[in-house]
Amino acid sequence: xxxxxxxxxxxxxxxxxxxxxxxxxxxxxxxxxxxxxxxxxxxxxxxxxxxxxxxxxxxxxxxxxxxxxxxxxxxxxxxxxxxxxxxxxxxxxxxxxxxxxxxxxxxxxxxxxxxxxxxxxxxxxxxxxxxxxxxxxxxxxxxxxxxxxxxxxxxxxxxxxxxxxxxxxxxxxxxxxxxxxxxxxxxxxxxxxxxxxxxxxxxxxxxxxxxxxxxxxxxxxxxxxxxxxxxxxxxxxxxxxxxxxxxxxxxxxxxxxxxxxxxxxxxxxxxxxxxxxxxxxxxxxxxxxxxxxxxxxxxxxxxxxxxxxxxxxxxxxxxxxxxxxxxxxxxxxxxxxxxxxxxxxxxxxxxxxxxxxxxxxxxxxxxxxxxxxxxxxxxxxxxxxxxxxxxxxxxxxxxxxxxxxxxxxxxxxxxxxxxxxxxxxxxxxxxxxxxxxxxxxxxxxxxxxxxxxxxxxxxxxxxxxxxxxxxxxxxxxxxxxxxxxxxxxxxxxxxxxxxxxxxxxxxxxxxxxxxxxxxxxxxxxxxxxxxxxxxxxxxxxxxxxxxxxxxxxxxxxxxxxxxxxxxxxxxxxxxxxxxxxxxxxxxxxxxxxxxxxxxxxxxxxxxxxxxxxxxxxxxxxxxxxxxxxxxxxxxxxxxxxxxxxxxxxxxxxxxxxxxxxxxxxxxxx
Length: 669
Ligand code: GLA
Ligand code: ZN
Fold this sequence. Notes:
The protein has 669 residues and is an alpha/beta fold. The chain is 30% helix and 21% strand. α1 (24-33) links the parallel β1 (9-13) and β2 (38-41). The radius of gyration is 26 Å and the shape is globular. Residues 13-383 form the Glycoside hydrolase family 42 N-terminal domain.
């Protein structure tokens, strides 16, 4: 639905309200030198638009829009509801959130509204209605940006009430709730709806952050994600009433924990996200995050924010090195981004973000390294062909990301405190990234049939429906891979009985009765017929194969020496692999060699050179990116291709300077 016909959106957050109006034109004169064609405005302006209850004043925003129009910069217009105005919090304290300790917050910070406050809903609705009615005919607007980086949780009385309503809708009866949560545990049996409270520090959450009743905690997370989604949808619907065409979005945050983005994605016209890698984020994790965002809709997305040089909210906000911002921008494009936007266009003079990087820094000079690099990139992006923007990515491998499993797994008390959902999923992504194999991240609701390999690491929660789908996929020739702590419970955290992993035992051809947990220093060697193949860490499943064959077994550090730890089970015409431990690099390489062979997938590249291909019906664009600081040399995979950025024919050997990017275009007749 997004219309990218005018090329790649290049720009970002701009907060002119923080500056004297006399400075605006100078900003635009400079920004246009960097080919900036878009500004995201009005993100935190509610008290300027409504200085007192019911009194609206759009004059300043009118002038900002007029300036943008005069300078031909298009607009991503935010709805300004991401921070509660002081008068609103002062007059109606209930609009603010109550934290997990039960403390009602006073006015301050941002992303601070209770999603279930009737007053917040009413007031934000009234504001958005007026904003959209006023600006929807303005042709400068390319996108609507609802609120900002939704997230966080509220535990107030309004949320408690709304939670009970949500539970009634989901379960019908209180008896069904008691049953789903198995609330007879520790005397939690509820006799009336009013007895149910949000799980929080003053009720059912331990100081570790973990809950007594896993089902209740899962439902509270679902409910809070849904509550914020209702806020989004309310604004979305108002915009749609006035504007039937322009895409509506909000900015996401990669693998954050609070929101089930797969549930949100159908409500957004285009996915937009904010990419803030830190000093030690590997290129493969950034790639993983882009792919997660693309996977939400299986469509191109917007790189809504990145910093041109440094963040300010991390321990060490290292500067991006010369060429690194350019490389990261192309990496986003390679994974499906169709915009390159920054936070922000002009650096704040004060406030919490004054040391956050911007295109125009405190020097307000166009001669800075940062400005020059941005300007060079802006020039390059403006030259890219339209076909690139219309191209798509079609990997052969699918990796399931499941927010419910994320919540459920990390709520587990035992077998270890070291359960990290994202790290576990990313580990398998990385194993393929290192082999140059592209991955599509999917939800459990997606169709698995297009893929040769389907991986579901740490997929803690399973249902009959998902299990049947995975079985059908495997029986029909697919290769399935899963690992320790997967397939263990139902949607409300009840263990699937009969031996682990419950519903998947037949598919995997094995059963597990016990899971050992071992400190990091007590790794276990893993043996195959050819010798030691790696080490297992942290958790070790005691596997009894039924129809599966063992690929490797535990060494003599344990009493379960000789018991299987890696297995493969031929199932229909496909195969299901099981990994009963967290593998070290050697173990993972041993496993993946067999998995790739069985899936008939071939490795492409290795090391710090990333290769991704975007295709249209007639053309392909292969991005070859040196993500690191050392020069690299690789054989050109498509020596007859045309190099887009230098507009030359490409050589047989590709020499890649640090952070270098090559885009090879091929035309297929
Ligand atoms: C987020 C927000 C922005 C800004 C940046 C700073 O992404 O959306 O408003 O605070 O972080 O990195
Ligand atoms: Zn609340």
